Amino acid sequence: MTAAPLDLAEAPEDAPSTPRRNTGAWLEMLISSILGLTASLVLSIDAIKLAENPNADLSCNVSATISCGSVGTSWQASLLGFPNAFLGLMFESVVIAFAVAGLARVRFPRWYMLGLQGIYTIAIAFAYWLFLQAYFVIGAMCPWCLLITFTTLFVFASMTRINIRQGNFGAAAQQRLEPLLRYNVDIYSTVLISAIIAAMVIVRYV
Known about the structure:
Elements: H1 23-52, H2 68-72, H3 84-103, H4 110-138, H5 143-165, H6 171-182, H7 185-205
């Protein structure tokens, strides 16, 4: 007597579904945070040089308007009383570990994911405030700072994508936002913002 074939319609409703790996988003986060950490390390070293000698000739001092020195000696570069780059050393290291764990399919609790989302929302606001200060107030652009501006955007985008897919913003938000991910609205938005920043830099400094 042969066994009757399993009817998928009769499968238990509470059977666990395969979690999404979000590999692309985790990789984007990992690569961006590694680049951000590299930029933060270089800026931290430059900050020490500038503390010893405000007129130090840094490798990224290309001209009067493309100059890490001009940005690094401004008050905006040490808004909290110490070089902003030191924050990058701390946070980018955490994000690297976080991304590696995500690639290993570690599932973080909802409160932890939302906490990081909140922290990185502040981080991206801070990064773009610094960009606008350099662009409109200081009148000079730091290439390494510009790299952090881009990488912060990419990390924020990938983190948001993962939180939406995992339903961490709540069922109602996921129902509204996940269709946008299927149409790659988040990717197009990230590319558009990056293009606008690049155009602003090219128009003024190239």
